[in-house]
Amino acid sequence: MGKKVCVLGAGGGIGQPLSLLMKLSPQVTELSCYDIVGTAGVAADLSHIPSNSSVTGHLPSAGTWPPTHDTGLEAALKDAAVVVIPAGVPRKPGMTRDDLFNTNAGIVKTLVEACGDFCPDAVLAIISNPVNSTVPIAAEVLKKKGVYNPKKVLGVTTLDVCRANTFVGNAMGKNPDDVDVTVIGGHAGITILPLFSQVEGFSPSDEELEALTVRTQFGGDEVVKAKAGAGSATLSMAYAGYVFAENVLKAMDGDDSIVQCAYVESTLTDSPYFASPCKFGKDGVEEVLGFGEITAYEQGWLDKMLPDLKKQIQKGVDFANN
Question: Which fold has domain 3-155?
Answer without folding.
Answer: Rossmann fold (3.40.50)
